[in-house]
């Protein structure tokens, strides 16, 4: 895996033996607090002793000209800005919407690179009117151009493997990743690897990670629980049989998962994406949401301390 952290980055350095020192950073994705101003969010992150933060464009930045100030605010609280994430279907079937989104995406990439943030996360999406091959070719052309334009900054462009609202986004399965990597060879294109999505679509996250270990830029720390009785009642196409959970409250074996990541050389950021309905998500009790973030932080630190 590509090393994104440097000795000057904020985080906690731990000695794992064999003369290997890995800078371990734990942060969270700010979308959980999109109803709160960024200053309040970074104050909470600092007071809770997080190392890093992943900032959501839609909730906390809005426009490219506000990137620099948002990053400076986080850094003023001694938080490492691991990444900035921008939602949107880069393959929107509406050509005008696609063009507008890509123009804005390119503007954000430049601003993020200039601010010294190492990773820009986007979503490929899908054009339902086009073939799979056309979708992969089109997104790869855009991504390759984006990587070329941001070469002076060394920015890594990553996609999260969220399958999208219709569970059909491209590039969200092992086969889909290989389709993209064959078309986008530059190592500055990678993954925000989220095992929770793989659990609910029936993909083994451990096998999946092993196959793409050199392309993982950042890890989303989120879990998934499955209610087997509900699944039996409604089937895979039904609703209510799975739920996103905080790390340690679902099916993922986090000691195994993080040991595997460490063994592959991952030394980036674990970014908690809190979407656990038992802890105030979405946009409900604020204290419960904060409790959930703290719970995830404590759990992950305990796991890492035992590796």
TrEMBL record:
Q: Does the keyword Isomerase apply?
A: yes
Q: What Pfam families does its record include?
A: AP_endonuc_2
Which UniProt key words apply to this protein?
Isomerase
Q: Which GO terms describe its molecular function?
A: isomerase activity
Residues in Xylose isomerase-like TIM barrel domain copies: 42-290
Q: Which residues form a coiled coil?
A: none
The reply to whether Isomerase figures as a keyword in the UniProt entry is yes
UniProt name for this protein: Isomerase/epimerase
Organism name:
Rhizobium johnstonii (strain DSM 114642 / LMG 32736 / 3841)
